[in-house]
Fold these 3 entries.
Entry 1:
Amino acid sequence: MSSLLSTMFLATGAMAADQGALEATTNNAANVNTPGYSREVPILQENPPVVVGNLTFGTGVSLAKLESVRDPILQLRIQQETGQQGQLNSFTSALSQAQTLFTAGASDIGSEISNLFSSISQLSTNPSSTALRQGVLTAASNLTSTFNNTASNLAAQRSNLDLNVVQSVQQVNTLTQQIAGLNGQITSLQNLGQEAGTFIDQRDVLINQLSGLIDVSEIKSDSGITLTTANGTALVSGTQSFSLTTQPGATGVQHIFSQGTDITSTLSSGTLGGLIEVRDQKIPALLTSLDTLASGLATAFNSANTAGFDLNGNAGGVLFTPVVGAGSAANIGVAITDPALIAASSDGSAGSNGNLANLNAIQNQTIIAGATPTTYYGNIVFSVGNDVSNGTAELQSSKLVLQQLQDQRGSISGVSLDEEAANMTQYQQAYDAAAHIVTTVNQMLETVINMGTLP
Amino acid sequence: MSSIRVNPYPLPDLLSALANTQQQQNTSSLDLATGTRINKPSDDPAGAAQMVTNTAQSSQADTFLRSITSVTGLLQTADSTLNSVVTALQRAISLGVQGANGTLSDSDRADVASELTGIKQQLLSLANTPYQGEFIFSGTSTAQPFVADATSSSGIKYNGNAGTNNVEVGQNYSLQVNQAGSQLFTSASGNVFQSVSDLINALQTNSNIGSAVSEVSDAYDHITGQRVFYGNALNQLQAQQNFLNSEKVDLATAADSISATDMAATSTAFTQSQVATQADLAVMSRISQTSLFDYLK
């Protein structure tokens, strides 16, 4: 059955649907600069038809829902890459600070080693000169204080990283709480059969931030989503978030605990992954190398110096305070203050320089892990430079990948103002058309009503 | 809607491109300003490690060169001192030959003997020559090498030792830089002080003057022979100095090829990154200013 009134209803229904669609367009245009916003598209649906006799009449249109356009798999890729980038970012920025200590200059360990040997050579041309002996002592104490400074700088950088770890853990906790809260809102909206696009967008933004801090795996379930770290430690489960805590560990740095379990060494991605790698592996390895170099030099110099005789004809003593093993670089010092105690002489006479040759020979001896002191130091420079250089290269490529993924996300979910303008025109015209129909039907109804009042 | 949707937000891409070109610009300008392309180890880890060795080697070469300069001074002083000794001994010999002439009176011989006593004093002072505060003929001792001694037949005894010093002037290359005074002045094959003393005695007693003169002549031959050591050492130092100077040039060339900025290439890169930055800025200023909304009026 088709009547003028039902035609009128059909037209007003179309007007309502078009108005709803126009609202989606307006919302899209309004959120054009909102980070993480996914554009909404109105889903228009044909109403079920009415069959009258052998005729089938359409019954118009209705707005089924406003749907956010997003690609969940792409979102996961973006999260992974954000984690990767967070890790590389904190790794390279932390190690870049460390590498400045190994930059060639007037006062790095390498040049101080050269200066010490140079002062010894000078002394050999006039072994009884107090000025030249003092030169050796000065060069030795410059070397030890450079060792001390480098080691304490590395230790200071390590404790700064430790602070960063604690701050990052606090950020992780804030984010997991917010995500758990959004999970609750999304679930209750979805249970009511409503679209939760806005909240999902917000949650995606937060999960992205979380991925930048720590490794995150996402599992979708009926009660929202579950987030865990790569090794399965729960961060968020539905509306429940699990806080991480920090406690000082045995090595004097903060360890990260989740419900009593130490998960520090399992974190490999995000800012925390990078910070922990530098704090617990790279800097300790550098310190160990410096310790090896310092104690190797100290041992060699001490044994060479004790083999000779000082200016007074007495047997030589140790030149460097004997430190072996961990803490050598931080604590090495010059053992003597009297320049006469440098054992230049090989036969006890004050003018002999015979033992200086033994001291000088150390620079060409493979006394430290099969390398000469200079080569060993060069290897340290190489390893720290190489780590930073590789990290930087990987960071560059990770940035490119992330950029492409963001482009891809933009091409799917991003708001295009051109498109929205076109949509606006389209819905406006449809609305106009429906409104015209209402006017026309109204006139027809008037005609029908006037049929009864013929002049 | 079957057309491919493009990312409507080109700005982040452009910003990151801009950051990249500016980074390139900074790197190039730092390389140009410092003249080295390794400003931190990560710029070229292998190169930075090579530079550590290169710097150490070149500092070693500098040290050797400084040692050579000090040692050369010492050896030249010793050599010219011995030259004076030789001259003094020549004078002693001619005085001895003159004193051996039978026509001389006792008082003439006494005059000759007293001039020889003066020469002996001069020889003593030459044998005690210091260089930079240290005696050069005392072996490895720091004591004054030759001192008066009434118990000795020559009246002078050697107070130093027989030690010698070597100074490293190259990698695994060390050079003996002194000779003990005992070897030079009181050697069995030519004793400077004993022979001059004997000549003075012979002139004073007018006996065995001829054999005393030949004794001095032996001492003269001995010192002349020993001087060769210093001449050789100075020659070797000169050769080593030339070698080290050319080694320094080699090391500097190597350092350049490891770390020096390629000025032409870096300037080009700098200009390119400038152009790229300007292009990015131009694009950014023109893009996204309009949308379809502007035309729907």
Entry 2:
Amino acid sequence: MPLTQFLVLAAILFAVGAYGVLARRNGVLVLMSIELMLNAVTLNLVAFSAQLDEVAGQVFALFVITIAAAEVGVGLAIVLLLYRNLRTPDLDAVDQLKG
Amino acid sequence: MVAQNVTFWVLAVVMVAAAIGVVRTGNVVHAALYLVVVLAGVAAQFILLAAEFVAWVQVLIYIGAVVILFLFGIMLTRAPMRHETPLDNDQRLPAALAAGALGVLLVTAVLDAFRGREIDFTSRTGPTPTAEVAQSIFRTFVVPFEVVSVLLLAALIGAIVLARRD
């Protein structure tokens, strides 16, 4: 199986996730788009692990999955705190630092 | 090899369609459900790449834990179910241009660098044994593993401190 088909799929997923991060306004949806990008990276790591016949890629994929779980926990706590203070999950409403 | 290729392309089409659903749908709960499809597709690709253990970790942690967290987040922020406020900001066109440029750049770079490389499964007898993954974690990568444990603890405490009501 060609290695490039996995890498191209991962690149497309990453670009779609980047669009979501830029275009979404709801905080939870931005976090979901970040998950899409992280999954693209994991797919790359495992594809290279299979191509090089080296298990280290899978270990790093496990690390990425762990860190993604930690990131979602903290990220949702932040979105929740914003909602409690501003009564909206919209990230556009967070403009206190604007001059 | 033909069966693997057909499986790959079917999964790839479904995954890209569901990913576009995540970033385009007007309903937050639908976005979470589309995300489940993408995550399950990634797990299936891992199985296709003979990474069985990572695939099941993906199913357990992502579909089992992260998506539930997202659904709790949607519930607690009372996300608009009926298009009251738009879920997108007004930068949709610049965002699409930037993401499209990024995608084209990544695809051309990847094709230029790795064209012709093949994943060879003929010498394998089955999926990567979990014992091999475990030995790699606890021998070669034991320090990063411990650092990740401390990071998880820090994230746990941080999330509690942030979300606690005083």
Entry 3:
Amino acid sequence: MMSEAKLSRTVVVANPNGLHMRPASLIAKLANQFQSKIELVRGQERVDGKSMLEIVTLVAEHGTNLTIEASGPDAEAAVEALAVLFASQFADVEEETSKDP
Amino acid sequence: MKFRDFVSYEAIRAALEAEDKPGVIREMTKALLDAGRIKSSEIEGIVKAVMKREELGSTGIGRGVAVPHTKHPSVDRLVGTVGVSQEGVDFDSLDGEKVQLFFILISPPDRPGDHLRALENISRQLRDETFCKFLKQAKTSEDVRQLLDEADNNHFS
């Protein structure tokens, strides 16, 4: 067994709509590709980063700071990949255009 | 946010008749129209927008639950309701299961926070398997309303 690394990184929710279902799904889908335990932390709240339903309960609006915590053999890659996803703002533009059907 | 803050009780449907995704979305949108929550001139635009959102990825989130939704400029506050299908409907869910419980949400474009708070409430309450099970067994809209009230009063979770 490889050693269990534990890593964390703080990210900001930068997309205007916050972590609604689609961004939360993207996070969970990506997190599930890693073996490590992955959690998202907001203040005292801590949720399973592999569960869309759990992520949605954070009510992470635009500008919210969250900490990604990963522990396990691929923790470093997981934190890096998730930080990139947050930085991409989840390509959260489609729903913006849908308000003018 | 609680169910009573966004669910139109008059639009609750405990026995959806539709048998497919577009049908369910139309039936629930029509229920919101009949309850006076949306305008008749907007129904086609809203149905189309909700379907367009589904194309980005199904809102069928597993456990027999779906949350079809959209932003729409014709509403000035978050409106929503609950529908139950006794038979279940194929909704392209993540887990492949048919969907029996539907929460539809129509949000003003400039209020993303309210949408998040409604999603939080739905997700948190759905953690409770008893709540889910009882909702699926509801026979009348009054049954659904009572369960939502009990959830609002923290009888579940």
